[in-house]
Specification:
The complex is a heterodimer of chains A (393) and B (99).
Chain A (H helix, E strand, L loop, with lengths): L1 E2 L13 H8 L13 H21 L7 E4 L2 H12 L5 E5 L4 H14 L2 E5 L9 H7 L4 E7 L11 H10 L3 E5 L18 E5 L11 E5 L37 H17 L1 H20 L4 E4 L11 E5 L4 H12 L1 E2 L1 E3 L4 H7 L6 E4 L7 H16 L3 H10 L1
Parallel strand pairs in A: 1-11, 3-4, 3-5, 5-6, 6-7
Antiparallel strand pairs in A: 2-8, 7-8, 9-10, 10-13, 12-13
Helix pairs in contact in A: 1-7, 2-7, 3-4, 8-11, 9-11
Chain B lengths: L4 E3 L3 H14 L4 E4 L9 E4 L5 H10 L6 E3 L30
Antiparallel strand pairs in B: 1-3, 1-4, 2-3
The chains are: A alpha/beta (393), B alpha+beta (99).
Chain lengths: 393, 99
């Protein structure tokens, strides 16, 4: 199998992840932070070690600023809902995932707040000048994906963050496609809140993610429940991370993610990034040569993460992905990738695109085989499938 | 005389302090907290002679305890940590520096 869907979830996971998860069911099978007996304490320290490794990887001096969540969606929901107690104005981009858009649409409906969606700026994903122009006196929050999960284009997070900081507006970054792909030092970036999943670029298991909360950022917790301490209080703890970690933690996921972080600290994200740019260049170069294939991606491989979206003339995207899977043993993702506004901006509604996303384990031979498969599809249009798609529409 | 107990507001803060003190060379143990004395039911027990310098280490890293039980009776502190190994950033001794 050729796996080119790493933007959905990394495959394979980092070495050591499975073993760490298995250990969590034995050696570390206490309830972390909930109890003072030796097994609970041992597990508490193991969870802390994972948190500390992730903090080191992400450039966070105090690991307590990293909160474990069930994934990026949970982290983004926490960050958005916890930042927006009432109406106001929020700015986001056309490249946002539904994990950002749906909480914002919901907030808009419930409170009468307003959301401004920034357009693409030609070849660039967005213009910082457009951010400046969109700011209103009641702007509370700016949300921006660090890189599009459709085109891979890296957004100007630092520039937008500086704008937000100078105007006292909270800045939330969706790091789903950049965590583990691009070296980060969160403490030095102009970011108040940052969310990511554990199972994509960080090469950890599914079911665990992170929310970085900069010290001093007031945030109302979304999930309330037991913290394992201060139980007589009616309010959740003030302490981070426990304020945002109600209930029992996903210890298997966290220890697995900790092992992945240890792996990335050893291999270095710079090396991963260099390989990603190489693979991105090879995919783009191969696909551009094929007549009938249209690319929707940053033309400079260095300006994007490892995601290439494309369409093939004569093929519906879903049918093309199905054929790649069935006939060529290639796993690729078709459709809208949970980012409908991005596809509206690209003009690829309603069918979306086929997306290739390589990972650290992807080989040059696999890229060559994938390009060859797309070339075969382009030479043999799926006329029957297209007729079906048209009649469904 | 019982060892001083460092009390922290939550388990992560306690685990962080435990790691930082170990890496700084100060021996300490996680113990059940005195009844009603700790919000998370655990405390760090540290030899009395290490109390003052250990508190200085934690304060420098923004990891001070919420309270110290038994510290007032402790003898004067030993100013030197047990280890003179270089200090790694944030609880990760032996790792490469932050990139």
């Amino acid at each position: 199998m050729i796996y080119l869907d790493n933007a959905a979830t990394a495959n394979p996971k980092a070495p050591g992840v499975g073993e760490a998860m298995a250990q969590s069911l034995g050696t570390y099978n206490g309830n972390p932070g909930h109890g003072g007996h030796r097994l609970a304490v041992r597990t508490t320290l193991a969870v802390y070690a994972a948190r500390a490794a992730l903090a080191h990887l992400l450039g966070v001096a105090d690991p307590s600023r990293l909160c474990f969540t069930s994934g990026a969606t949970a982290a983004l929901n926490q960050a958005i809902a916890g930042s927006l107690p009432g109406p106001g104005h929020v700015i986001c981009s056309t490249w946002e995932h539904n994990a950002v858009l749906r909480p914002l649409w919901d907030w808009q409906r419930r409170t009468g707040g307003r959301v401004t969606v920034l357009p693409a700026a030609g070849e660039a994903p967005l213009s910082p000048d457009d951010v400046l122009a969109a700011i209103r006196p009641d702007t509370i929050l700016i949300v921006l994906t660090a890189a599009s999960n459709v085109t891979g284009a890296i957004c100007p997070v630092v520039e937008v963050g500086e704008i937000a900081r100078t105007r006292g507006i909270r800045f939330l970054v969706d790091g789903a496609q950049t965590a583990g792909h691009i070296p980060l030092h969160l403490d030095t970036l102009p970011i108040d809140l940052w969310a990511c999943p554990g199972h994509k670029g960080l090469l950890g298991p599914q079911g665990v993610g992170l929310l970085y909360v900069r010290r001093g950022t007031e945030l109302q917790p979304l999930l309330l429940g037991g913290a394992g301490f201060d139980s007589e209080r009616q309010e959740p703890p003030e302490e981070t991370p426990e304020r945002f970690e109600a209930g029992t933690l996903n210890t298997p996921g966290i220890l697995g993610l900790g092992a992945a972080a240890e792996h990335l600290l050893t291999t270095g994200i710079e090396a991963t990034r260099a390989r990603e740019v190489e693979l991105q260049a090879a995919i783009q170069e191969g696909l551009r040569r094929i007549r009938g294939v249209r690319l929707y991606t940053a033309s400079d491989p260095g300006a994007g993460v490892g995601v290439v979206s494309f369409t093939i003339d004569g093929w519906n995207a879903a049918a093309a992905a199905e054929s790649l899977d069935r006939d060529f043993d290639i796993c690729a993702r078709a459709g809208l990738h949970c980012a409908p506004l991005a596809h509206r901006a690209l003009g690829t509604l309603p069918d979306g695109t086929v997306r290739f996303s390589a990972g650290p384990a992807t080989t040059d031979a696999e890229i060559a085989a994938a390009v060859e498969a797309v070339s075969h599809l382009a030479a043999h249009p799926d006329t029957a499938g297209l007729r079906q798609a048209t009649s469904r529409a | 005389m019982p060892e001083p107990r460092l009390i922290f507001p939550g388990p992560t803060a306690l685990a962080r302090a435990f790691r930082l003190l170990q890496e700084a060379g100060y021996g300490c143990d996680i113990v059940a907290a005195p009844e009603g004395g700790s919000p998370c039911g655990m405390a760090l027990a540290i030899p009395a002679r290490h109390l003052k310098p250990a508190l200085a280490v934690l304060a420098a890293l923004g990891a001070s305890p919420g309270a110290v039980l038994g510290g007032a009776q402790a003898p004067p502190g030993d100013a030197e940590p047990r280890s003179t190994a270089p200090q790694a950033p944030e609880g990760l001794a032996g790792r490469p520096p932050l990139r």
